[in-house]
Amino acid sequence: MIPNDAVSGSDVPRSAERLVEANGVRLCVQTFGDPADPTVLLISGAASPMDGWDEGFCARLAAGRRHVVRYDQRDTGRSVSSPAGAPDYTFSDLTADAVGLLDTLGVDRAHVVGISMGGALAQCLAVAHPERVATLTLVSTSPAGPTDSELPPPSERLRAAFADPAPEPDWSDRAAVIAYLVEGERLFTGSAPFDEEAVREVSGRIVDRTTDIEAAMKNHWALKDDENPVTVRLAELAAPTLVLHGTEDPLFPSAHARALAEGIPGARLIILDGVGHQAPPARVWDTAIPAVLRHTDRD
Questions:
Q1: pTM to 2 decimal places
Q2: Which stretches in the chain have pLDDT values below 50?
Q3: Which of 54, 63, 216, 289 is 20 to 30 A from 170, comparing alpha carbons?
């Protein structure tokens, strides 16, 4: 039985952040819950450290008898960092890092939850290492391979921001960097409700625990294509898949979610009303968390 609404998670044991070796590099990881329970691996989006997954969200998943793992990808948080603007790795390396992390933690198979770029990584992981992926949950993301649909572009406001980006802050000025992160998050939230106080708090935590915040903000966007990238064909994804997507996502309008749900055999789509391009905010946890627990209630 799954606890109703996944309870609060306030008493769930959690590890301190720790540095581990995975795929030959240093990654920072934190776990919630009992390692004997099924593992849920949370993969963050571009330029986002583990803080992109709210601690309360992780704890409530763990309260549903899941072993929840969140981590800093390369160039974010406390994980290994490259010079700003010059990442020394590829997208495929990030996929391999997730496998290496499971190896380090002694996890044979995980329920993989990816958001945005992390959702693309999750799709590649399911293709390249299907034996390691028990289920997929794709949040605020888009097909990582070709589809039969012509998918809509980002919102006009977001396209304008991409064409004329905000000036970079002084990366040594904590207050300026926090303000930069807050405004970036506001942009990706679109017309959804925006909790500036909460975003500012998380942004401060990100700045304080990130080895090189300039590299964190730049390097994932500077990744070059692999010579032999994994080819994702949605119809060949065998892992049971849940798609969670907000109605107000300005980067990937909801047609992207429908393309995933229609292209992946047996996939289920849940639309989150009033949610932008973001991890499920607390106001929709009573929908999102039980859905993830039900989806991952399988071997």
A1: 0.95
A2: 1-6
A3: 54
